[in-house]
């Protein structure tokens, strides 16, 4: 009986260990020879995010970030961008089991593409080591712009912009899985050179998630040094004078300090007043030159500025009305017209050729469409989506500047008189290009997007007949991180008879 009692007690203790304590990947990996380490990961938060449909996008980014951090720690020790090919499958199984052990469902890892879109072995454009990545062109710009801390929005945005420019220069046009893998390789090479806490800071910026490690995984805060009569040897002279002043000099020091502070505060106040006067004068002149006092114009200026603060990047420029008018030859080069307004061809002094879309009327709905398209295109980057080059908001006028598509729209080639018919090979390639754009919008955007107005006039062709999708004024962002999971506004949007595949979400 005593033996059975001891066995039962041992069983209870083991159950307590497995249910109440956190099991780290190194313990599992040690038995299976997987070198990746996820011991400080916040699995509790990962399981919580992956249990909610509305957080699926964040769940995938969270899983991706945890795996990338473990690969980064491995790269710090080996200089390799991931495990060797013979250990890849083993590590994928090990990490997948560990995620499931802490409550992350298998459906979540399958949905996020664990093992395909989220590998444990990164190879980017033939580069598989940290040294190769660090020596590739323009990687120094990434290192320079991603110095920690990256807690501020501006610092994080500069870091992400540098990473995007680096990958564009390195890869050119590629599929999204390759782009995602190379982004993870860039993160790994960058963080393999810094400590663990800095790695977490950079990961929060790269993947847009917080709370990647458990509070117990953080280093304890440094305690203040004990008070002593003699100051520490490493203290600076200013610290010595403030922490341990001589008693006989204390009153004289205060008498000297008070007038100095008064003079400094007065000087700063005068300087600030002068700056405010200059700014007010300049603003008054701008208001005289531009008629922007109505409520609609105020909304148009404020809405994009507010929304873009959350975006990962903002890479297009703002043009003035004068520049726009001159580039379009006084709005004399019309190349198209749609529900939004007239489209002009513009040639700017720096050599840039653009298609300028002009809002035909300023209303609340038109402003919303304008701001929605501006916001969406600030976040979207794909070779089969028409790229936004800039915008203009001035004098009750609203303009969007897109890359110029030399061969116009697909509608022109299908229905216009006197056009040479497109070959079947070209037509099939155009269909493939549009399918690639829709795949990107549906499965790789966060949150995914339904265009809701796909038609031949919104499919534009460049000089090589490469197709690109345009006009995002009616795009709908899914709220739950996936496509068509919940009912949305049941009003059919866009052109009648042009039913988008995503319209099935209305049933």
Can you describe what's shown?
ATP binds at residue 357. It comes from Sesamum indicum. This is Probable receptor-like protein kinase At1g49730 isoform X2. With 507 residues, this protein is an alpha+beta fold. The protein folds into three domains: 16-217, no CATH class; 293-404, Phosphorylase Kinase, domain 1 (2-Layer Sandwich), CATH 3.30.200.20; 407-507, Transferase(Phosphotransferase), domain 1 (Orthogonal Bundle). 49% of the residues lie in helices and 8% in strands. It contains 18 helices and ten strands. The chain has helices at 2-20, 25-32, 43-50, 56-78, 85-101, 106-111, 130-134, 139-145, 153-171, 176-191, 196-207, 237-243, 250-289, 295-307, 321-327, 364-379, 410-415, 424-444; strands at 317-318, 334-337, 342-347, 353-358, 388-394, 397-403, 449-450, 459-461, 467-469, 476-477. It has a six-stranded mixed β-sheet, with helices on both faces. The protein has a two-stranded antiparallel sheet with strand order 7-10. Helix 3 (43-50) packs antiparallel against helix 4. The N and C termini lie far apart (65 Å). The model is unreliable at 1-31, 217-249, 291-314, 479-493 and 496-507 (pLDDT under 50).
Strand order of the largest sheet: 1-5-6-4-3-2
Q: How widely separated are the two ends? A: 65 Å
What is the count of structural domains? Answer: 3
Provide the helix percentage. 40-55%
Structural class: alpha+beta
Query: What's the number of helices?
Result: 18
Percentage of β-strand residues:
5-15%
**Mean pLDDT score:** 74
Low-confidence stretches: 1-31, 217-249, 291-314, 479-493, 496-507
Instruction: Give Rg in angstroms.
Output: 29 Å
Number of strand elements = 10
Inertia-based shape: globular
InterPro entries: Kinase-like_dom_sf (IPR011009), Prot_kinase_dom (IPR000719), Protein_kinase_ATP_BS (IPR017441), Ser-Thr/Tyr_kinase_cat_dom (IPR001245), Ser/Thr_kinase_AS (IPR008271), SPARK (IPR043891)
GO molecular function, one term: protein serine/threonine kinase activity
Protein name: Probable receptor-like protein kinase At1g49730 isoform X2
Pfam family, one: PK_Tyr_Ser-Thr
